[in-house]
Amino acid sequence: MVNKKIEKSIKINFNRFIPLVKSKTDEELKSLVRDLDSGIIYTDIHAQQNNANIMSVFMILMFLKDSGKKTGDTRQDKIYNILLESQRTEYFKSIGKTEDEVYDEYVKSIGMIYEYMDKASPMGINGQPCFMSCQFLSKEDANRMWVFYGKYQEYKDLLKEF
What we know:
Elements: H1 4-9, H2 26-38, E1 41-43, H3 44-49, H4 54-57, H5 75-95, H6 99-108, E2 110-116, E3 135-138, H7 139-161
Antiparallel strand pairs: 1-2, 2-3
Helix pairs in contact: 2-7
């Protein structure tokens, strides 16, 4: 029999499984452009250019799919995981998709992975920074950001000629 106190304390917000990366405003994207140009943001593109494994740079990605589960061996952790799985199953049935389908849609919507350098851990791997957090841009926002980046570079070049 499941402890009712534990059951009541486990209310999962499954809206986080909705397969969309939150869209950013133009101002937020322009701020990212300035930060990227200043070198205070590290992206998956930097990792690819340096032949680094993205999972060793953005280590949190290793846990993306199984987020929420508790890894302890206590009875409460085991009950939590059983209830979590039950609630997850009900949620995915209610939207008519499997968890894998929702996960795949989410991953496919990611256009860029990035994080601010001040969030890097003190020790990196093979000369690359290592992050235990990351942020995402949708494909649409990543494309818009690169357009802003191109304009920003043009403006910078014009100022150099001034």
